[in-house]
Fold this protein.
Amino acid sequence: MKKPLNVVEKILSAHLVEGDPATDAEIGIRIDQTLTQDATGTMAYLQFESMGVPRVKTDLSVSYVDHNTVQIGYENADDHDFLQSIAKKYGVVFSKCGNGICHQLHLERFGKPGTTLLGSDSHTPTGGGIGQVAIGAGGIDIAVAMAGGAFHIPTPKVRAIFLKNRLRKGVSAKDVILTVLKKFGTKGNVGWIFEYCGPGVATLDVPSRATIANMGAELGVTTSVFPSDAVTKQFLVAQGRGKDFVKLVADPGSEYDDAFEIDLAKVEPLAAAPHSPGNVVTVKSMRGKKVNQILIGSCTNSSYRDIRTVALYLKGKHVADDVEVGIACGSRQVVNMLAKDGSLAILHAAGCRMLENACGFCIGAHMSPRTGAVSLRTNNRNFEGRSGTKSAQVYLVSPETAAASALTGKVEVPTKKPVAAVAAPKKFPVDDAMFLYRATAGKGVKGTEIVRGPNIATVPKGEPLAKDLAGVAAIKVGDKITTDHIMPAGARLKFRSNIPQYAKFVFEPCDPTFHDRCLANREKGLANVIVAGESYGQGSSREHAALCPMYLGVKAVIAKSIERIHRANLINFGIVPFTFADPADYDKVAAGDRLELKGLRAAVEGDGTLTVKGPKGTFAVKTALSDREKHLILCGGLLASL
């Protein structure tokens, strides 16, 4: 008799190409689809190009332009031209600038239940809302997948998030995922997949499920997955993609490694307070707090359901005089629907600024708030300074809370005067005109000339790992250091294709002298070591947070704990991801300390344990590596291993 399987087990078992989940700590899975976006895609395609593969080997690969769409200077526009030409040559579908946000678009037009999706963006798990195992990763992992290679993950544990009853009016999916974040936090969830189940799932439409799966990235889990059921089918049929539907639900009697129950009827409006998505408070506790700016959109909350809900709150009213309100829809499809039902006119008359269908404000690329401002936002991250204004206080809220607060310029509880629920459309208007090269997807066009602007540099390769290492603690940072701390986004992202230039800004928010110090250490023959606290490398999948440090001579990270995607990126670029055997030894190291890592290569080849010698004595570090990961580090990274 076959063992009953949950949804995660069904998808992974159908895609397993390496390892045995019952015995191995790491498994390799086949990837059906990939997505990239412009902030990470240029590097991913440069790496793919260096592999010498004539075309992509996935079922579908899509290149989206949605991050740096404000083209100040030539760099972003040049990258967009590079991405378009390389998509044409190698058989990638290209989504033009202005088409929309990658995760919203992929959900609408390409996501398929039961498939695997790998994306060079940490919020790729949005696809879990439609029944995909969708995982964020570094660009080089996407390049390997496009070339036909397997993607490797730690053998996951699966936690069931059991939903019952239904949400009250004025409460929405954003409040559900904030409830989960309040319970599990932003650290300690590496290696887990969250699977949503129970009768409450049927009360959530696909956009709501996608919101929950999207912001599950802040938990640090590998991904989040919903079943594919009648609600999923209705969404796909409405998108004209009924043929893509596959029923996919957990078998009766299937088992999970852990479970957590949420009574949707008891969920209340919540907010993530500065400066972490895990710093969850009730909206009620904030009621009356003065607000300067409200921004609605991002890949978390930019669906038709979300923006139409905002329009219903604002209908016949006007936003408060002293609050700025901006709205960015997730796709042209959403804009078209809002135009047809009158919502755009409502929002315009209410005094809202209509922003481009792009990531924009979420990554600090525009709409930075004024000094010391309180900004309510419906996106997924509120890391310090991510908005572009370090002194700003950014709160993450639902569209309902944002809309209710816009009317008074103060935080309001949206359940006080809720609006009617937005029904799932029976038919979405489909316009795929801004998806290019669909006819040549998977084939490519021979003879296509790749456009390379002067900001596009070659990808540096690492060097084989040394037998011993004489190093220096080039920087010491605390807990919850994000990839935004390591590699600032916003205006700096325009240098993403030029590693020597972008590397000048490594750790700029923490210590602007880091770059110069690393180069000075390297000239002295000393390797650079990063020392960090808990949950190092939170946030974006941006592989530059490993690639640029590698370029500066960083050979090892020693932290209390390291997040999954960043750990994988470190390994991909030949940097050893150590953790303190005893977290208390973090206090034995200071910035500038000389460190001896004698027997480093032997430690990586062996069980991963090493004794480090510093000015305050010795301390033990460890790293648990698979044979594949050992090989990559010993070679100096993935590209160097090819």
